[in-house]
Amino acid sequence: SSAETNQPGEPEAEDPHKKEVEAKDKEIINLKDKYLRSVAEFRNLQDRTKREIQSARDFAISRFAKDLIDSVDNFDRALSTVPAKKLTENDNNQDLVNLFNGLKMTEQILTETLKKHGLERFDPSEKGEKFDPNLHEATFQTKVEGKEDGTVFHTQQKGFILNGRVIRAAKVGVVKNS
After folding, report:
1. What would the pLDDT profile of 5-14 be if each residue is shown by its tens digit?
2. What's the CA gap between 136 and 69, in Å, rounded?
3. Which of 24, 42, 105, 160 is the residue whose CA sits 20 to 30 A from 11?
4. What are the backbone angles phi and psi of residue 116, rounded to the nearest 5°?
5. How does strand 119-122 pair with strand 159-162?
6. What CA–CA distance (Å, rounded) separates 178 from 175?
7. How many Cα atoms occupy the beta-carbon half-sphere of 152 within 13 Å?
């Protein structure tokens, strides 16, 4: 009995081609889904690899930068030992003035070179910043008239940031009036 002779209420005979087309449609949907997932996974892998390469580039000089920090600190110490009065006296100290200016220029060139490569020095007491445990290490607290609690008022050792990441926190004194 063909489909044309079926009586109402009798199940229609299944077309074998229709079943085959439905199976192929399901397979196509399944394969398309797998393909899209593979493409997304590949793009995620590409993005992750790019980020990892950039991170490796940014922080490859990290150990080298940490070693250089001591040299920068030594320039600071050397420059801070010369009293300002000795630099303004008449020709009595011209050799000292020349040495000081040479050290100052060398320190500036070194600092600018480090900055070009992402290493920056910061001094939180210059601007009277609020204490931030992510950037600062409090070495002591004391009363300071006219300053707000939690304000950095003294820097014992300047901090350094390499490409946005702290590689040495600034050692600071913090106001505590209460």
Report:
1. 555 555 566 7
2. 16
3. 24
4. -60, -30
5. antiparallel
6. 9
7. 27
Give tens-digit pLDDT for 90-148. 667 888 889 999 999 999 999 999 999 889 999 998 888 899 999 999 999 999 888 88
* Burial annotation 84-102 (CB, 10 A radius, 16+ → b, else e): eeeeeeeeebeeebeebee
| The pair of three-digit structure tokens given for residue 30, joined into one six-digit string | 């399944």
- Around 113, how many Cα atoms within 13 Å sit in the side-chain half-sphere? 10
Tokens for 141, please give them. Answer: 């607290």
Q: Could you tell me where the beta strands, DSSP code E, fall in the chain?
A: 119-122, 136-142, 152-157, 159-162, 165-168, 170-175
Percentages helix, strand, coil for the chain (3-state, rounded to 5) are: 55, 20, 25
